[in-house]
Amino acid sequence: APKDDDAFRKNWRRPLRKDEFQGLYRLIQSAKSRGIEIAWTLSPLGARLRDPQEARTAVLKLKSVLNLGIRKLALAFDDVDPEIKQIDFANRVFKSLLLDYPDLEMTFVPATYWGDAVPSLYLDYLGRRLDLRFRAYPRGRELKELFPTNTSWLD
Description:
The chain is an alpha/beta fold.
């Protein structure tokens, strides 16, 4: 997700505008015609992570995108301080979405760089509590180890 797009991050609670839906729909259709599947990310900056209404708001926003045909989503907590509540929030959102979208693939992007976080209570909790149906990926320099060529975009 573009970090400077308010719909994904700062104003994540705001429903997508009609022009945003139209643009996303055109992108999805163009990608499909080329055999590419689009994934969509929500980065709920400033979410009150223990507030059930905040999880419901995230679910509603993500459902609006799922209704366009997207089946790959991500919840991203990068660029914020790690909080164990992020993992519980993500689990609540994912569990709710799976009720209506059992074919959903969802990625969890943690708040910490893997190399900087080991050992940590956050990663320990992540390993023990994150729903196993999530995909979870490292960030930063660890990606360079996984993809050693053409990673200039990571810098």
